[in-house]
Amino acid sequence: MIRSRIHGTGRALPARILTNDELARTVDTSDEWIRERTGIRERRILDAGLAASDLAAEAARNACEAAGWDPATLDCIIVATVTPDSPLPSTAVRVQQKLGVGAGCAAFDLTAACAGFVYGLSIADSFIRTRQFKRVCVVGVEILSRIVDWRDRNTCVLFGDGAGAVALGQGDVARGRDDRGLHSTHIHADPTGIDHLHIPAGGSAKPASADTVAGGEHFVRMNGRQVYAGAVRNISAACEEALRANELTAADIDHVVAHQANVRILEGVAERCGLSLDKFYLNLERFGNTSSASVPIALDEAARAGRFKEGDRLLLCAMGAGFAYGSAYLRW
Ligand code: UT7
Fold it and tell me: How far apart are CA 172 and CA 128, in angstroms?
């Protein structure tokens, strides 16, 4: 039996910091409101002229370097994003080019919003366990600053830009001495969320036009309360599913690396699942919600800070637009 394992992690964050106080100068909000309701203090904003593939390639390169892999040896690049460089071609193929990976490697984007990285991990895990590929780079990248309406205080205070990546390869289970690696992934979607977090125009249902642009229909629209409730419900369900599938209790988990949307959502998940909040790695204070990038950025920060010991039990979980949601359980 083959198990996949994270051989390296990486991240890339823009240098430009946008604080709550700066935001409060342009929209009707305050540092106090944002911190109390979300836990966010600041977020990163990508410079004009750069795009998702630039950050994604940097994160992917860092993950490959940490794994000791030459990017040219990758079999597959999966980029989870809702902010591709452009609708066509995929951002993944642009990342392939920026990494200097020649023709032959598979490369594609996937859209599962904030759950995109967990979805990507699940797909990459299947590729490895079925021996289709040996080396897969899974990237979560978002340049959300380009799709939020900076006049809308309901959304613009929440989001930030960033990228995170993992180098996923074979574990050592075949030799019967290594429990490290991915033990299970669980991905789902709940269509009751379709209208609560969406971009009305710019797709085939309502192509971009002067009218859609004038109406701001190419920006994110969100019903915060509904998304909040959906996130607590669905992330908790995904965590409980991972625990059940691996015959574990909440007390067995050493670290939770969850999607960083709102600290209150994570408090709700912790309470429902009986997980101690101390086990959650939190960085949303510094980066805000980076959608599909948030789990791999947190994973990389925690890993490089030496938080994980070999064999530690990690639970990853996320939910976003759709609602798409999921979890993964792994031994570090
Ligand atoms: O990754 C998934 C994507 N999104 C999320 O996970 C977001 C999920 N939702 C949330 O995190 C929370 O619902 C929010 C942070 C968006 C909002 O927090 P809330 O406690 O649900 O506040 P609310 O929407 O109930 O709004 C409370 C008040 C409202 O005023 P009234 O109607 O009570 O007078 C809002 O208009 O706060 C007002 N408000 C703001 N005030 C200052 C909304 N946004 C702001 C703001 N600054 N930025």
Answer: 12
CATH superfamily for 181-331 is Thiolase/Chalcone synthase (3.40.47.10)
Q: Is the distance from the beta carbon of residue 170 to the nearest atom of ligand 1 less than 6 Å?
A: no
- What does 265-305 look like in DSSP terms, one character per residue? HHHHHHHHHT--GGGB---HHHH-B-GGGHHHHHHHHHHHT
| pLDDT tens string 201-255 | 999 999 999 999 999 999 999 999 999 999 999 999 999 999 999 999 999 999 9
To the query of whether residue 154 is one of the catalytic residues in this protein, the response is no
Among residues 162, 114, 122, the alpha carbon closest in space to that of 259 is found at: 114
Whether residue 320 has its Cβ less than 6 Å from ligand 1: yes
Pick the catalytic residue from 64, 76, 114, 156. 114
pTM over 0.90: yes
List pLDDT tens digits, range 250-309: 999 999 999 999 999 999 999 999 999 999 999 999 999 999 999 999 999 999 999 999
> Among the options 64, 273, 289, 317, which is catalytic?
289
Residue 183 bears catalytic tag: no
What element of type H or E holds 189?
strand 181-189
**Residue 230 CA, ligand 1 centroid: distance in Å:** 14
Catalytic residue among 239, 259, 273, 317: 259
CATH architecture assignment, domain 2-173: 3-Layer(aba) Sandwich (3.40)
Q: Whose CA is nearest to atom 20 of ligand 1?
A: 37
| Positions of CATH 3.40.47.10 in the chain | 2-173, 181-331
Name the CA radius of gyration of the chain, rounded. 19
